[in-house]
Amino acid sequence: MKGKEILGELNINQSGKVIGHAGDIENPEEIGEIISYNLKKGMEEAKDLGFSSIHGFAMIGSERSLAFMKGKALILDTKQTSWQDIFLGYVFSKWILILGIVVTILALGIMATGVFTNIFTWFSLNSRLYFSIAALIVGISLIFMSKSELSYRL
Predict the structure, then answer these.
(1) What range does the domain containing 45 cover?
(2) Using an 8 Å Cβ cutoff, are 90 and 147 in contact?
(3) In terms of domains, do 20 and 68 share one?
């Protein structure tokens, strides 16, 4: 994750210890202890409220903030942070991506079969030419459309 609002990153394992860090972080072990304590308290409160667990949280300060999700803690500049960009991200829809790749490969296969063999007559305007071009356009469109699904990073 990159951006001018992100001042540093901490990677934290399941036991709450800091594995690695990047950026301008003065006391990574102390921040790791704060995160593990808040995560422990958050889990207790989540169970009291009837939830199985929490997956992330944010601590917002006047100048710097801390966001934790999936083993990664981000130290952020509060005034420049777009919280939607931090907690939401575009991901690939696997099934649309697979369908786009399959349709594109089939279209290219039909075109290659027509060019390198005498099975299809490509100089006449028939449905095979239109089908392969349309399938290629649909396949490439599906590949580009597969990155349009919003997902929480938590």
Answers:
(1) 6-88
(2) yes
(3) yes
